[in-house]
Write a structure and sequence with these properties.
By secondary structure, the protein is of the alpha+beta class. It has 3 helices and 15 strands. The relative contact order is 0.10.
Length: 267
């Protein structure tokens, strides 16, 4: 649809190249802007076709058809909105989970079937004292499989479930505690690192794995000092003594500069 373009349209009324209408004033000799069949047909069809696209029957008496049609089209083309506590039990396409402000997708595997966030299981930097609805504290706590089936399914799908005796704080591992309970990772006091190769073992590093404190190999030779004595003592270094140790220096851990956040996992 284009703006009015008849011979007496008001040029540039709404900006350069954006013509508009004007009222007529017979006493002042000003003629009202003339309409054209093209412009009127454009206006009519823009409104009518919107109403028809929404599946509404045209009416001579319903003055709200156009806004109702717009709302119907917006709703039909938007993700269905649901509470995280009342998700659909069948696949109806992507849904908007209101409390999380996220679109969740239908997921099917040997361990879980239902709606789940694509971010489920992702470690997060908690920026609020209390976890958001989409988060749980990653401090090694116990959760219910029935209450968090998406997260428990994620853990099994990605081979992140280990035996109780093999669980270590700092890993991204879960534990089946039997019955309805499972343990979540304890990610406190950890830095993240991406998988690759462990240079100390030459083994591939795995998702969820852990490595304790290490310092790259290096030396701190102190040397042996020879003194000549006399009024003016001549001091010179004549060699290194690997058996001689330097004094203790540093803190309780090796760490770069860092800012603290709370360890969380997306449900």
């Amino acid at each position: 649809m284009k703006r009015i373009a008849t011979s007496n349209a008001v040029a540039d009324l709404f900006g350069e190249g954006k013509d508009g209408f004007r009222d007529g004033n017979k006493a002042a000799g000003i003629q009202a802007t003339q309409l054209s069949a093209l412009w009127c047909n454009h206006l009519q069809e823009a409104i009518i076709r919107t109403i028809e696209a929404a599946g509404l029957p045209l009416s001579d008496t319903d003055f709200d058809q156009f806004p109702n049609a717009l709302m119907a089209l917006i709703t039909a083309n938007s993700a269905n909105s649901y509470s995280i506590n009342n998700l659909p039990t069948t696949d109806i396409g992507p849904v908007l989970v209101i409390e999380c402000a996220e679109v969740w997708l239908w997921s099917t595997s040997a361990y879980f079937t239902g709606y789940r966030s694509p971010l489920c299981g992702r470690p997060l930097d908690g920026h609020t004292v209390t976890p958001l609805v989409s988060e749980i504290d990653a401090v090694g706590g116990t959760l219910s499989k029935a209450a968090y089936p998406q997260l428990w399914g994620y853990a099994q799908e990605n081979a992140l479930v280990v035996a109780v005796g093999d669980w270590i704080a700092g890993t991204h591992h879960f534990v089946d505690l039997g019955g309805d309970d499972f343990r979540v990772p304890d990610l406190r006091n950890q830095f993240r690192r991406y998988t690759g190769t462990d240079l100390d073992t030459a083994n591939a590093t795995l998702l969820g794995g852990y490595k304790a404190d290490t310092i790259k190999a290096h030396t701190h030779a102190t040397g042996i000092i020879q003194r000549s004595g006399g009024a003016t003592e001549d001091v010179r270094r004549i060699g290194d003594d690997a058996a001689t140790q330097t004094g203790s220096f540093g803190t309780a851990e090796t760490a770069p500069k860092h800012t603290y956040f709370l360890p969380r996992i997306h449900v």
